[in-house]
């Protein structure tokens, strides 16, 4: 290979092949991925949309939220179309190369018929050479070379044989390898420009791009939160282990995402000097006089005022503060999730004895309480019915009926249609339809909990220090499943509906009640207590009535025959019993194997799901007209001890609950035996009034003592030798060292 020279493309033909393949490999996937597409709206989704004023304004803001998307999409389309035009031109040029190489016909080039004489060929050659000669004004060097090669192919005998055999007057072409780059790249006069371009791309542009990306990425955590913000959360939550939710809002507003020094997207206006102080004066309990840093910084006070105005639904200037409110509120769910993670990490550090103060369970729950408040734009202390469209403070008094007050959305959904309409009689039919759409799309979650000790002989028994696995099963349905339908009564009493008797009978059947309804036992005091009648046991003595004839006497031989028959029957019964018991054991073993295999498959499936990663798509988009963008329905689940106010498991953020999901929460059982009560909690990050909790009872037994010494594992050499000598074979517990070597035989 020494001394080999690279051959560059002199004519530029192979370079066009390189460009064609490179453009095709990059342009096709880029077109499929980056070509802007207009999303088609689902007609069913459009029907389910709420038509209230706030939802309509939100949809308009979302369409105009990114004004740069229009020019960006237009630029992307222009670049892709330009790339396809270049690709088509290069493909056409390459096809011309192939046509010239594969369609060499000397008769066609000389424009003479096949079988023409030598005189006719020479005459045609002279006529065209006068026109195509390079020295003439109309000359063409390339065409003149083709003309000369065609004349040679028809006049020279050897060239004619090569053309007839190989299709080329020069004979068979030799295969050559080279670099598909034009030769001007390696020319000496162009070397400075080539090296300059190389240095500009690889030594200037590439390091700047990589450094900029690296500098931006190291400033953020995995959840796109600034690391400085996370550090600030750690400081304040460690400083105040028991924190009220109003102070949590203060810390949330102090996030550095809202500071222009850390975030270039933040806009400061001259009008803020007038509008922000006016807004702070109109909001109570804002705490603007707090001197803690960065809680006292102007950006923090502005963000805090906008969050309070959002929760009180105060109208703002649409051209200034309203834009800032939408930006700040849109980032709050991510920041609240980071607060929950920060408090959880501090709890883990407190358990590891690395920090002295343990944050209370109320602190992490107060962080969770803020998220649905921000999403719905309402204080938790206000009525939860304000989450429904068209509901104002004037409508709330109809829910507070003295006979039967409605306190939850679930109770409102379970009312009869006439009762619901009477409560909202001040609304029009269209407004009432919007209320029922939103109410029917809200979650109705069946929350089930199962406690066990996995990979243990007795999974139901919990011993001290054991790993307890709590399986949380969530079945999500719409709240419209609780709606009651009223029958339409006609002439015959019931038409186009459900009969009242059948409805009463179905209502008597105790269906599976939702988790928020308490199970109330009804006792019938008038009903007498029924005693279960038990059949008396058969006695050995039998009394004979006087009317009955006495039993005939039995001889000894007959008794012996009967005993033999009975013994045979009993033996057959024993055999059948043994066979049936063996079959049952086999069947039980098969069932156990099947159950173990199913458990193994479930573990593999769950492991694959974990490897695939968390999905961020839940059941449906949350109805939140005051939240600036679409919000998915997420949940938190965790286990806590209310008595000691501690957290037992890390809060699991559920982001993929569509219909049914299972989650496993694991914690270590207490080290002392006794009865313990823990609470499994489920909290929504999107709606108020849908939190659930279930108490679990843990009867912790004393852990079995470790087996250190076992009598059958302790042997002395004398006992082993005696056993081998007496039995004539080796002991069952003999080790490999005690076996004789092959050389001893």
TrEMBL record:
Record keywords, A-Z: Chaperone, Endoplasmic reticulum, Membrane, Protein transport, Transmembrane, Transmembrane helix, Transport
Subcellular location: Endoplasmic reticulum membrane
Topology of the protein relative to the lipid bilayer: Multi-pass membrane protein
Biased segments, Basic residues type: 518-532
Main location: endoplasmic reticulum
SUPFAM superfamilies found in the cross-reference section: Chaperone J-domain, E set domains, Sec63 N-terminal domain-like
J domain span: 105-167
InterPro entries in UniProt: C2_domain_sf, DnaJ_domain, Ig_E-set, J_dom_sf, Sec63-dom
Membrane-spanning segments: 15-35, 74-92, 192-215
Region Disordered, residue ranges: 494-604, 701-745
Compositionally skewed regions (Basic and acidic residues) per UniProt: 576-586, 701-713
Compositionally biased residues, Acidic residues: 565-575, 716-725, 733-745
Annotated protein name in UniProt: Translocation protein SEC63 homolog
Organism name: Nicrophorus vespilloides (Boreal carrion beetle)
């Amino acid at each position: 290979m020494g001394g080999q020279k690279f051959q560059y493309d002199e004519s530029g033909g192979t370079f066009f092949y390189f460009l064609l393949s490179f453009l095709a490999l990059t342009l096709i996937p880029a077109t499929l991925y980056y070509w802007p597409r207009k999303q088609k709206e689902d007609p069913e989704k459009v029907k389910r949309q709420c038509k209230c004023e706030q939802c309509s304004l939100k949809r308009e803001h979302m369409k105009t939220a990114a004004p740069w998307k229009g020019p960006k999409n237009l630029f992307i389309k222009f670049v892709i179309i330009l790339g396809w035009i270049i690709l088509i031109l290069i493909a056409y040029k390459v096809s011309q190369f192939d046509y010239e190489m594969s369609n060499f016909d000397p008769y066609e080039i000389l424009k003479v018929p096949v079988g023409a004489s030598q005189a006719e060929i020479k005459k045609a050659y002279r006529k065209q050479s006068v026109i195509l000669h390079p020295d003439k004004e109309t000359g063409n060097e390339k065409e003149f070379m083709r003309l000369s090669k065609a004349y040679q192919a028809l006049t020279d005998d050897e060239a004619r044989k090569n053309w007839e055999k190989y299709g080329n007057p020069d004979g068979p072409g030799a295969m050559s390898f080279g670099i598909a780059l034009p030769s001007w790249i390696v020319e000496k006069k162009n070397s400075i420009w080539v090296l300059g371009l190389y240095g500009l791309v690889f030594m200037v542009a590439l390091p700047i791009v990589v450094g900029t990306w690296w500098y931006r990425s190291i400033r953020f955590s995995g959840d796109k939160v600034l690391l400085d913000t996370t550090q600030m959360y750690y400081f304040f939550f460690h400083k105040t282990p028991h924190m009220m939710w109003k102070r949590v809002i203060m810390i949330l507003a102090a996030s550095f995402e809202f500071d222009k020094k850390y975030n270039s997207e933040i806009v400061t206006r001259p009008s803020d000097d007038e509008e922000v102080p006016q807004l702070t004066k109109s909001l109570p309990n804002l705490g603007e006089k707090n001197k803690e840093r960065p809680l006292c910084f102007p950006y923090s006070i502005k963000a805090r005022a906008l969050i309070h105005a959002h929760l009180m639904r105060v109208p703002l200037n649409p051209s200034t503060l309203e834009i800032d409110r939408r930006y700040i509120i849109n980032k709050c769910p991510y920041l609240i999730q980071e607060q929950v993670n920060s408090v959880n990490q501090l709890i883990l550090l407190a358990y590891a004895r690395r920090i002295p103060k343990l944050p209370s369970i109320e602190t992490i729950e107060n962080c969770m309480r803020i998220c649905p408040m921000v999403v719905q734009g309402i204080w938790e202390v206000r009525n939860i019915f304000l989450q429904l469209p068209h509901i104002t403070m004037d409508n709330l008094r109809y829910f507070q009926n003295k006979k039967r007050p409605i306190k939850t959305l679930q109770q409102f959904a379970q009312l009869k249609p006439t009762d619901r309409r009477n409560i909202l009689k001040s609304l029009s039919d269209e407004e009432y339809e919007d209320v029922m759409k939103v109410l029917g799309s809200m979650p109705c979650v069946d929350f089930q909990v199962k406690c066990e000790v996995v990979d243990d002989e007795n999974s139901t028994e919990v011993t001290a220090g054991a790993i307890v696995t709590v399986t949380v099963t969530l079945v999500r349905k719409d709240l419209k499943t609780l709606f009651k339908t009223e029958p339409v009564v006609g002439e015959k009493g019931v038409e186009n509906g459900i009969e009242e008797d059948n409805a009463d009978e179905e209502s008597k059947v105790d269906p599976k009640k939702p988790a928020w309804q308490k199970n109330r036992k009804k006792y019938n005091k008038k009903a007498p207590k029924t005693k279960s009648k038990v059949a008396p046991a058969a006695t050995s003595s039998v009394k004979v009535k006087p009317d009955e004839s006495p039993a005939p006497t039995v001889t000894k031989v007959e008794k012996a025959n009967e005993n033999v028959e009975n013994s045979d029957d009993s033996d057959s019964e024993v055999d059948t019993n043994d066979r049936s018991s063996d079959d049952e054991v086999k069947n039980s073993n098969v069932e156990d194997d099947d159950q173990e295999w199913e458990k193994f498959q479930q573990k593999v499936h769950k492991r694959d799901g974990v490897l695939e990663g968390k999905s961020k798509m839940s059941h449906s988009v949350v109805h939140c007209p005051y939240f600036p963008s679409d919000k998915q329905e997420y949940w938190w689940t965790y286990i806590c001890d209310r008595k000691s106010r501690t957290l037992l498991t890390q809060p699991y953020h559920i982001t993929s609950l569509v219909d049914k999901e299972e989650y496993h929460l694991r914690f270590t059982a207490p080290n002392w035996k006794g009865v313990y009560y823990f609470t499994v909690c489920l909290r929504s990050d999107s709606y108020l009034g849908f939190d659930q909790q279930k108490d679990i009872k843990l009867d912790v037994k004393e852990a079995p003592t470790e087996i250190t010494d076992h009598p059958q594992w302790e042997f002395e050499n004398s006992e082993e030798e005696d056993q081998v000598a007496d039995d004539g074979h080796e002991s069952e517990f003999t080790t490999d060292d005690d076996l004789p070597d092959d050389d001893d035989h």
